[in-house]
Structure formats: C-alpha cells, structure tokens
Write a structure and sequence with these properties.
Length: 489
C-alpha cells in the first residue's frame, strides 16, 4: 500500500524560466505598448544602493521622463537580450539541453498595448504563435505566466493600477484572448508572478504609484484583492476554453525560520510567513484565511469588495501551487538585540548565522527548499511546481569562450537534491524550472551582469556587446541532469 518514491517521476518537467520583460527586448516592434518595466533605468554611474531602490519606489517624474522621446537615459528592459529576434536560436539551445518545459510570460503590452483596447494586436498574438510552435517542434511544454511584472504603463497612469476595479475586466479580456488563441498550444498557465510581492513593490506588481496614496497599505491590499478576483475569473475563462488546462498561482516563497527558540521569535515567524502564505491560502483554498480581519485591521485597511467576489474565488481556486525559491531568512522579534543583524530587504528577516550568502546578500539554504515543499504540500495537498530557483552571479568569460560557473552548478545541484528528498517525503512536485536559463536583465537591479543562465549572453549593463550566445559549464551539467532524470547531479 505504501510505496516510497526514490526517483523523479518519468514525466517530470525539467526546464528553465524567463520573463518577457527581461529578455524579449524589441519594445518598439510589432505594435507593443510601453510597460511598467520599460520605465526602469540603469546607469553605471548610479550608486549601487539606488539600483534596486527604483524597484521599490517609482515617481511621476521618472515615469514622465521615461515617456519623453528626448530622454537620453538607458532603459535595459526595453532591449532585454533581444529574444524577440533570437527566439529560434535560444529555443534550439534549450532543446539541446533537453528541456521538457519552458516557463515564459506573455507581454500583456504586445497583445493589448495600452491594456484598455477592445481588439487585440494581431502582430503580438502571432509572435507567441511562432514561439509556441518552435517549442512544440522540440516537444518542450510551455508554462506561461500571464502577468510577470510588465502590465501596460497606461493602466497605471490613467487608471491608477490595480487599486482600480476596472483592471479586473481588462485583465480578464487579455487572459481570455490568449486562452482562446493558444488553447491547443499551452496547457499550463500561471496568473500573477510572485503575487505576494504586491507588498514589496506595489509599482511593478500593481501599477500603484506610492505618491498617490497616503495609506499605501490600503492600496496594496485593495490591489491584491482585485488580482485575486481577476485570477479566479481568468481560471474560469481558461476552463471554459480548455477544460484540460491547468492554472496555477505563483508566490515568492522565502522560508522563514525563528532566529531562536524564544517564543516571541517563534510567533513572529508565524506572523511573517504569512507574507507569502496569505496569498497561497486565498488562491489555493479559494477564501481569505481566518487571520485576515486582524491583519487588515492592524494595517488600517478596509477592503472594498463586491458581493459576487467571494463566490467566484471559492468556485475557481488554482489547480496547482507554484513558487520561486532562492533563499531563507531568520526572524527575530527583537532584531535590535542581535549584534550585526542585517535585515533582508524582501522578508525583513535577519541573517541566519548558519548560512552562506551570495554576492547580493541572498542566504543560500538548499534544505529550506525541501522544507518549503513539505510545508506547502501539507497545507494545500495540491501539485507543486518549482517555478524559479537559481544563483545570480558575476560570471567571467575566459579565453576560448569558457565560463566556469561551478558555484552555480553547486547551488543548483544542492537544491535539486532537496527536491528529490521532498519527492521521497511524499510531496507531489511535477516540475522544476530554474530561473534565468539564459542570461537576461535582472528584475530587481536592472543589471545585465547579475547572471543566472546556463547560456551566457555577450552584453554588458549598458547594452553593449555582440549578444552572442555562449554555453557555460553549467549548460553541459544541466543537460546531463535532465538526460538522467535527476539521477546524476
Ligand atoms: C524573481 C522574479 O523574483 O526573482 C524574476 O520573478 C527575477 O523576475 C528573479 O529576475 C531574480 O531576481 P533578480 O532581481 O536577481 O533578477
């Protein structure tokens, strides 16, 4: 009756993940509109601390400047790595590694350039037809996010972003359009990438400009509520279009552990872990968890809802739970008492003395991935998908086109081992797409030089370079991992 699983399932979806706004480029080609991501600048002279500040705060002044054709600034995400023109070559390289799946996103702005049009842009739709056909040619399953940090800028400047309920209709129109168009080409969908990040960066997740909101918490949770409803309505539309399709949620999951066994640290960890679990609770179960009332009251948030919202969320929870996992963090109720405690920007946690950190201060904790998989499966009993996991580093291109990225191999190997452990624990995990299978623009810092790929792209932070694709050492390593279905790591 009980059979322990010691191997990855035969049909396990090995692959890599990217996002349209970070790799496609060609932002002025094929009728594409300007997206939120197209407004972020990069300048080598900019102090390092400011790189990711932009991610957290966007001002009207920056947005106006970005729309001015006379602006001399460099906007990296408008250029990406020019996947738009290199997609055949890039997909051929993914196929050479043996990818079974490729997680990507559709740029909303290619389909509805401003977001509020009634008729979609055919040129945008046909671009993704070509991409899906190319993947299909190699038997690679597309796993597609509808919204990955790039909604139309117009929806932010004209409507105020997701805080405005009208966004639900615009999103559902976009979602229904692509579900219908690609129903024979795409089976796996995700609605909002890292939906819980609305609380970290409301501009790029919600199109909400903080200057407009005296109570930004109100805007964040109102926007999140609208995304929950939109996600449920999109799931409904997807099922109507193709009953066999699977729709997942996607959260940024940082495992949080108590800094000590002090009961205050333990409770603080439970509270803080809800920065991710609140979102999976709503989307996987279909209703707000019991702690919502207290949590919103403490933030002075009063949600405006419509009577039908509750039912649609209950009727259309997601089919699977996907998440990104890069690191864990420790939580202390009294960080001021810990000497040298460094706050983690994303989680607000403190440094765990047992763990090493990457060059960007991310705490490397492979075993945490097994814990995360177990936690999520215990909670929801729904299939899980590791949508992102990877190691951002400054790679060096050496003589003879060599990139010896052993640090990346080691990071990925240790994490994949833990996925296997979780499978033995009984967790139903059906795929693993490492982040940034090809180098592209970093979401948080806007740099090119924070690289995650198996494939190096010859381009620097200011977009200079040949864009030549070069296989790293990790390319051959991952190819063998896939060929042996995770038996040789
Ligand atoms: C995830 C995002 O948060 O992390 C990706 O979904 C992002 O878009 C990835 O690129 C890595 O973050 P960064 O800032 O190093 O690019």
């Amino acid at each position: 009756m009980f059979q322990m699983k010691t191997k990855f399932p035969e049909d396990f979806l090995w692959g890599g993940a990217t996002a349209a706004n970070q790799l496609e480029g060609a932002s002025d080609v094929g009728g594409k509109g300007l997206s939120l991501a197209d407004v972020y600048t990069f300048d080598e002279k900019m102090p390092k601390e400011q790189w990711s500040d932009q991610w957290h705060l966007m001002t009207h002044k920056q947005i106006e400047e970005a729309q001015d054709p006379a602006s001399k600034k460099y906007y990296p995400k408008r250029h990406g790595i020019d996947f738009y023109h290199h997609y055949k070559e890039d997909i051929a390289l993914f196929a050479e590694m043996g990818f079974k799946a490729y997680r990507m996103s559709i740029a909303w702005t290619r389909i509805f350039p401003n977001g509020d049009e009634l008729v979609p842009n055919e040129e945008g739709l046909s671009f993704y037809d070509r991409v899906f056909d190319e993947l299909n040619k190699y038997g690679i399953e597309p796993v597609v996010s509808l919204s990955h940090y790039e909604m139309p800028l117009h929806l932010s400047t004209k409507y105020g972003g997701w805080v405005n309920r009208k966004l639900i209709d615009f999103f559902v129109r976009f979602a229904s359009t692509v579900f219908d168009r690609y129903k024979n080409k795409v089976k796996y969908w995700m609605t909002f990438n890292e939906i819980n990040c609305v609380t970290h960066h409301p501009y790029v997740s919600l199109g909400v400009i903080e200057e407009n909101h005296p109570n930004i918490e109100q805007a964040k949770f109102q926007g999140a509520h609208h995304q929950f409803v939109a996600s449920a309505l999109a799931t409904k539309a997807c099922k109507e279009s193709n009953p066999k399709a699977m729709v997942g949620c996607m959260v940024s999951y940082q495992l949080l552990v108590p800094y000590s066994c002090d009961p205050d640290d333990v409770q603080a960890t439970v509270d803080k872990q809800r920065t991710s679990l609140f979102f999976t609770d709503v989307q996987a179960r279909g209703y707000y968890p019991a702690y919502t009332a207290k949590m919103l009251a403490e933030k002075n948030v009063v949600l405006e809802t419509e009577p039908e919202d509750e039912q649609i969320m209950r009727d259309y929870p997601v089919d699977y739970v996907s998440f990104s996992y890069y690191m864990s963090s420790a939580v202390s109720a009294h960080p001021e008492r810990i000497e040298g405690a460094v706050g983690n920007l994303l989680t607000g946690g403190v440094k765990n003395p047992y763990l090493p950190t990457s060059d960007w201060g991310w705490q490397v904790d492979p075993k945490g991935l097994r814990t995360a998989l177990n936690q999520l499966y215990d909670l929801y009993q729904k299939p899980l998908f590791v949508a992102e996991n990877g190691y951002g580093a400054l790679d060096v291109l050496e003589e003879g086109d060599k990139i010896e990225d052993d640090y990346r191999i080691s990071y990925l190997k240790e994490h994949i081992k833990q996925v296997k452990e979780a499978i033995a624990d009984g967790v139903d995990v059906f795929g693993y797409t490492s982040w940034g299978c090809i180098d592209m623009i970093s979401a948080g810092t806007n740099q090119m030089s924070k690289r995650y790929g198996y494939i190096y792209v010859d381009q620097d932070d200011m977009g200079r370079g040949t864009k030549r694709r070069i296989k790293k050492k990790s390319f051959y390593w991952y190819k063998n991992v896939i060929a042996t279905n995770g038996e040789q790591l």
